[in-house]
Amino acid sequence: xxxxxxxxxxxxxxxxxxxxxxxxxxxxxxxxxxxxxxxxxxxxxxxxxxxxxxxxxxxxxxxxxxxxxxxxxxxxxxxxxxxxxxxxxxxxxxxxxxxxxxxxxxxxxxxxxxxxxxxxxxxxxxxxxxxxxxxxxxxxxxxxxxxxxxxxxxxxxxxxxxxxxxxxxxxxxxxxxxxxxxxxxxxxxxxxxxxxxxxxxxxxxxxxxxxxxxxxxxxxxxxxxxxxxxxxxxxxxxxxxxxxxxxxxxxxxxxxxxxxxxxxxxxxxxxxxx
Amino acid sequence: xxxxxxxxxxxxxxxxxxxxxxxxxxxxxxxxxxxxxxxxxxxxxxxxxxxxxxxxxxxxxxxxxxxxxxxxxxxxxxxxxxxxxxxxxxxxxxxxxxxxxxxxxxxxxxxxxxxxxxxxxxxxxxxxxxxxxxxxxxxxxxxxxxxxxxxxxxxxxxxxxxxxxxxxxxxxxxxxxxxxxxxxxxxxxxxxxxxxxxxxxxxxxxxxxxxxxxxxxxxxxxxxxxxxxxxxxxxxxxxxxxxxxxxxxxxxxxxxxxxxxxxxxxxxxxxxxxxxxxxxxxxxxxxxxxxxxxxxxxxxxxxxxxxxxxxxxxxxxxxxxxxxxxxxxxxxxxxxxxxx
Lengths: 274, 340
Fold this sequence. Notes:
Shape of chain B: globular
Structural class of chain A: mainly alpha
Helix content of chain A: over 70%
Radius of gyration of chain A: 24 Å
Order of helices and strands of chain B: HHEEHHHHHHHHH
Distance between the termini of chain B: 37 Å
Oligomer: heterodimer
Number of strands of chain A: 2
Radius of gyration of chain B: 24 Å
Helix content of chain B: over 70%
Structural class of chain B: mainly alpha
Distance between the termini of chain A: 64 Å
Number of helices of chain B: 11
Strand order of the largest sheet of chain B: 1-2
Number of helices of chain A: 13
Largest sheet of chain B: 2 strands, antiparallel
Largest sheet of chain A: 2 strands, antiparallel
Number of domains of chain A: 2
Shape of chain A: globular
Strand content of chain A: under 5%
């Protein structure tokens, strides 16, 4: 099936491209990965802490991902496209809100907006904010640095080292899978989906090749002096900027969480113009 | 069926992160104790394999639908439950970070739903018990099928519980369950068949790859369970204390600052259904599912809809202007000096 190959190529491209962005250099890229990681986690907690009918207080929170994208000059279109590929699960769960929650939330010129639609919109906004921010975090930090940051905030070393291995070998093994799929397709003149019997040996062979590769890797690691301990190198120094980045943003989040700017501006406008 | 950040509340996300973190810490210490430094590269490569193999689909005979492996069960069969749990957790982290599948705060939920059940419940208590030592084709097939279906059913049910406990959706419990379980039955059959096909192939070609527990460091699943439940209860208790003290404070201050009351209301008695379910199961007894808010909300409902049109219009205008301001502010900040 041609579908499989283009899908695999697409995934490899996605993985590589996002990490490539992290090799750029900007003031955001230079912020310590630990500071970026902590700030982002705090951000996510604030965003999801709103009740399900909240919309206007969520809007100011879009400043953080937008700030990161623009200051780090990440390709806006690429990130938007990635986010627009909205998780079907979120939509599936959210779309039931308008069906089951039919209170009138407010009326506007005779049009009744039910609370179900309000909460649906709220879910979609939260989805956009959280997903964009996580993708942007990778784009300005990179996977290696993120593993380092996770290790610093207490993730066990066996686990973070293993994550690095996983990331390193995704490219190789996915390419291997693509080669195998391509080979099968070229030998199948009439395009047929993979049957169960073929699947077992296709995936099984891929698995055996992966295990053999792991063994070769292990041997070469020992030859290079591996003693069971892997050191993750990362930037250990903290500059003043890192603290400023972290504390300023957290203060901004707290302000947005407690003070309804949208409401304030709305009332101000009504007062001035009416 | 990845949970998403947008669907969970901080207390549910936090509790599940604590549960999964506890399991990761426990599994990490177990893997370290096995003193087999081969395992770390093997785990990494196996995770990459799961990633790649998920892209190969096959057609399920006589149905025309397709299936692929999920990972947790196959990994447990080859790496053992502890290493498998760490590996599936890493696969989920990469998916969350690079493909926006799930989210960073929902990771705890996802790792628990997709890792805990296959590795610590289904593999030791179902798969191992059925297959035993004789590795017959029929047994492997039956065990894989049953195990995959069970893990996915349990995982899907957890998704329902986590979503409802978060209170973001208005979906009634029964509808949600009726929606989730059958879909995951189909996915489970697909995964079961796929796993069986691979395990049977390995049995023919290289049977020594299967995991055999190292008796000297044999872990106890009970300990893993206690570690997980303990951490979850502590965090749940702390977070629900925050949930009942802090957000109430939050709402109070919002009322003071913004002049609008909290508009929370339980949609179609999810809370009641959930509460009765929770009382029946008594899971996390310390975790009070926002009971004070529920009462407040019921009171609120009495005067529903009490939102003044003025507040809504000012909200609409204010929200739009805020969004425009944010965008404007962002573009003013645009950085031109970025080195590729």
